[in-house]
From TrEMBL:
It is found in: Cytoplasm. This is Alpha-1,4 glucan phosphorylase. It comes from Terrihabitans soli. Its EC number is 2.4.1.1. It is an enzyme of class 2 (transferase). Its main location: cytoplasm. Allosteric enzyme that catalyzes the rate-limiting step in glycogen catabolism, the phosphorolytic cleavage of glycogen to produce glucose-1-phosphate, and plays a central role in maintaining cellular and organismal glucose homeostasis. Phosphorylase is an important allosteric enzyme in carbohydrate metabolism. Enzymes from different sources differ in their regulatory mechanisms and in their natural substrates. However, all known phosphorylases share catalytic and structural properties.
Length: 818
């Protein structure tokens, strides 16, 4: 029961009154507007500022406490933090959501509109960046003192617009009007140096290296508080913004060169303008390396300052700090740490190396050869001459030791060396990260096994025992509790309120999997979520989809290995089959796609056009009305994911086996009751192990079979196509211009690619995928059985909470108590 205070109003009502007063005060005094004239955005800012005040007290209190008790801190270095909108996260995790909704309601304002007025912080590209965001939330929840370090991009990733079916890129302007969440820390500014030369001096018979850089840029800190569940703890996400050391060349300006006077400013500020500038040009490549060093150097200077301030010297750094490298993007940190210890603090090499290699750990996210980062030596030397010296030194010691331990295997050296001698000599950041870290982790059981067998096989022999697995996870606060309140309410009723703190209690749902009443409730919740998505489709695309259809969802970055194309081939085959056999038991489907392609990725952009061209044909064909629709929702981001995922019936996870390191979209969808159709790849395997073979649709070659076929070179794509009349018909239709009558040859490159090379083995898996989709139809036509399978999925997803993942990192990699 709510308590009543002496004034006669309940605590709850008083809390609402306080929230109302706080919002109005912010509206008047901070936004500077009369509430009568406020826009939705004004309400968002006022509400966010009122919420932020609550956070700030906890934030500062937590910082004082962890400083006082000398706890080990975790530093998570990532080029991406895909945090999305913050308002609901903050209010919900502080258990203020209902209070603020009521307060706004009393003011005549719908909180839903206020939420929508917040721009997405699109500081990431996909799964890797979203993982960093989920991890920050879980670290706060588990009370681990942590800093996230990254870049405060003015524009993040681009905004995707679909024009005539083609992807177009426009700058994302999330910071246009500032953001109420961050605190500018002008006093936390560091010099970041680039270029120049290195002078060698001998002092007391010891060689010293003095770097004379040719350029200095300032890194300025902005802190965004990340709130843990139930407000338990608040950690900073510290993002660096680039500024010129001299904002204006006054002498040039006074000579009348007003543009030239600002050119240094523009060159410096470019560093924190956009995520993933195109690296097709040399200038683009250089900018990318400048970004990486910029945020790494600022972050290390910052954490070392903090350590020295509290503990006095650097010898104890490994006991007080754990630095996690999210992929190789921040791997230059190994060299930067050594430089700081050797040159700025005069430590001996062995001592510096001991500190460095017992502080760092590295997460590998991909084994695709084209995605493993390397830098041309001349570029690296021009930008970071001292770091290249240090890397050569690290490499020499490493190769000497390897030679000694493996005297009969000289060929081992070229594989474990940091320098790739082929291809014009390049620095391999994966090798550097591996050699400089005490622990290297993969992100799913399969991916970790493949790491040991392929890319890092030899390094794993030289440094055995360093590789561990940490299967990814997702935060249930955002991906269940906030995005699917209907399902959350039911889970609280059936499994008990404690389920919000102990996800393993979701398992209790399974006891009721056969209960028709529960099945009906689950189906009703799903349907309500689908109605919300239907409205989004109508608003954004201008046509209707039926909530009673099967919502078949593939939402993720557009990439050939993820095989959106395989899904499109099946869509065309289904379209043909429905037309030839209209009375068969097809499950009525809406195929839903969303995802961005990298701006320079021509093949992926053509596949987006294909999806849109197929959609146009299918959606306008009356003969498949009510049976098939195709939807491409533009500008996939966290907020759109939060709407699509609770509404999904089927989750497409169909990458070529061995290529998706983990996936996390697969986890979000299964947790929300979508059944997975997927290959035995990444975390799909662990999802299958948890939900059981009967509650997932598995198809296609295994990773081992993929390797075997590649080795054997057979069967070829030609063989596969010859063996499948249906596939041949689909390829002929697309290649012959059935979906592109305005340009019949438009998709020829796609079809020719499949016929000649088929790098991602679509023709090998097509028939098996088709058969799995028909098993989907069959189950969909038995609604009780379908819902039962959905219930079993939800009930068995607790292990995929990022709280579990982070607890494993804490215990086994970082050695911090939880
Ligand atoms: C979870 C998520 C991803 C990752 O999806 P995958 O299917 O694992 O590739 C990408 N983008 C956004 C916005 C996400 O929320």
């Amino acid at each position: 029961m709510l308590q009543t205070n002496t004034a006669g109003t309940s605590d709850y009502e008083q809390a609402i009154a306080e929230a109302k007063a706080a919002i109005i005060a912010k509206m008047t005094l901070s936004v500077g507007k009369d509430p009568g004239y406020a826009t939705d955005r004004d309400w968002f800012v006022a509400t966010a500022l009122a919420a932020r005040d609550r956070v700030t007290h906890r934030f500062l209190g937590g910082k004082r406490a962890s400083k006082a008790d000398g706890k080990k801190r975790v530093y998570y270095l990532s080029l991406e933090f895909l945090i999305g909108r913050q308002l609901t996260d903050v209010l919900y995790n502080f258990e203020l959501y209902d209070i603020f909704r009521a307060a706004l309601g009393d003011l005549g304002v719908d909180i839903e509109r206020v939420r929508e007025a917040e721009p997405d912080a699109a500081l990431g590209n996909g799964g890797l960046g979203r993982l960093a965001a989920c991890f920050m939330e879980s670290m706060a929840t588990l009370g681990i003192p942590a800093y996230g370090y990254g870049i405060r991009y003015d524009h993040g990733l681009f905004r995707q617009v679909i024009k005539d079916g083609w992807q177009q890129e426009f700058p994302e302007t999330w910071l246009e009007n500032g953001t109420p969440w961050e605190f500018l820390r002008s006093d936390v500014t560091y010099d970041i140096r680039f270029g120049g030369s290195v002078e060698t001096k001998t002092v007391n018979n010891v060689p010293r290296f003095i770097w004379h850089p040719s350029e200095v840029v300032h890194a300025v800190a902005y802190d965004t508080p990340i709130v843990g569940w139930r407000g338990s703890n608040v950690n900073p996400l510290r993002l660096w913004s680039a500024r010129a050391a001299d904002p204006i060349a006054l002498s040039l300006f006074n000579k009348g060169d007003h543009v030239g006077a600002l050119s240094d400013q523009a060159r410096s500020a470019a560093i924190s303008k956009v995520l993933y500038p195109s690296d097709e040009t040399a200038a683009g490549q250089e900018l990318r390396l400048r970004q990486e060093y910029f945020f790494v150097s600022a972050s290390l200077q910052d954490l070392i300052n903090r350590h020295i301030r509290i503990y006095g010297d650097l010898y104890s750094l490994p006991d007080r700090a754990a630095i996690q490298l999210n992929d190789t993007h921040p791997a230059v940190a190994i060299a930067e740490m050594m430089r700081i210890l050797l040159d700025d603090h005069n430590l001996r090499w062995d001592e510096a190396w001991r500190i460095t290699s017992s502080t760092f750990s590295y997460t590998n996210h991909t084994l695709l050869p084209e995605a493993l980062e390397t830098w041309p030596l001349p570029l690296f030397e021009r930008l970071l001459p001292r770091h290249l010296q240090i890397i050569y030194f690290i490499n020499n010691l490493h190769l000497e030791a390897t030679k000694k331990n493996f005297p009969n295997e000289p060929e081992l050296l070229s594989s474990v060396s940091i320098i790739d001698e082929r291809d014009g000599r390049r620095l391999r950041m994966g090798q550097l990260a591996f050699i400089g870290s005490h622990t290297i982790n993969g992100v799913s059981a399969l991916h970790t096994d493949l790491m040991k067998e392929t890319t890092f096989r030899d390094l794993n022999r030289v440094y055995p025992g360093r590789i561990q697995n940490k299967t990814n996870g997702i935060t249930f606060r955002r991906w269940l509790q906030q995005s699917n309140p209907g399902l959350t309410k039911l889970l609280c009723e059936v499994c008990g309120e404690e389920v919000l703190d102990k996800p393993e209690l979701i398992k209790r749902l399974e006891e009721h999997a056969d209960d028709p009443a529960l099945q009906q409730r689950i189906a009703k919740i799903k349907r309500a979520n689908k109605v919300v998505l239907c409205k989004i489709v109508t608003d954004r695309l201008g046509f209707r989809v039926e909530a009673d259809s099967l919502f078949d969802v593939q939402i993720k970055r557009q990439h050939e290995y993820k095989r959106q194309l395989l899904n499109l081939l099946e869509t065309v085959a289904l379209y043909d089959a429905i037309r030839s056999n209209p009375t068969a038991d097809w499950a009525p489907r809406v195929k839903i796609f969303a995802g961005k392609a990298a701006a320079s990725y021509v093949a992926a952009k053509l596949i987006i056009k294909l999806a849109n061209d197929i959609a146009k044909t299918v959606n306008n064909d009356p003969s498949v009305q009510g049976k098939l629709k195709v939807v491409f929702l533009p500008n996939y981001n966290v907020s759109l994911a939060e709407k699509i995922i609770p509404a999904a019936d089927l989750s497409e996870q169909i990458s070529t086996a061995g290529m998706e390191a983990s996936g996390t979209g697969n986890m979000k969808l299964a947790l929300n009751g979508a059944l997975t159709i997927g290959t035995l790849d990444g975390a799909n395997i662990e999802i299958k192990d948890n939900v059981g073979d009967d509650n997932i649709f598995i198809f296609g070659l295994t990773a081992a079979e993929v390797e075997e076929r590649k080795r054997a070179g057979a069967p070829t794509a030609t063989d596969n196509i010859a063996a499948s009349p249906m596939l041949r018909q689909v390829l002929d239709a697309i290649g012959g211009g059935v979906f592109s009558p305005d340009d019949p040859n438009r998709f020829k490159p796609i079809i020719d690619g499949l016929r000649s090379q088929d790098r991602y083995m679509l023709t090998d898996d097509f028939d098996s995928y088709w058969a799995a989709q028909r098993r989907v139809d069959e189950l969909w036509n038995q609604p009780e059985k379908w819902t039962r399978a959905a219930i079993v999925n939800i009930a068995n997803m607790a292990w995929f909470s990022s709280d579990r993942t982070i607890a494993e990192y804490a215990e086994q990699i970082w050695k911090v108590p939880v």
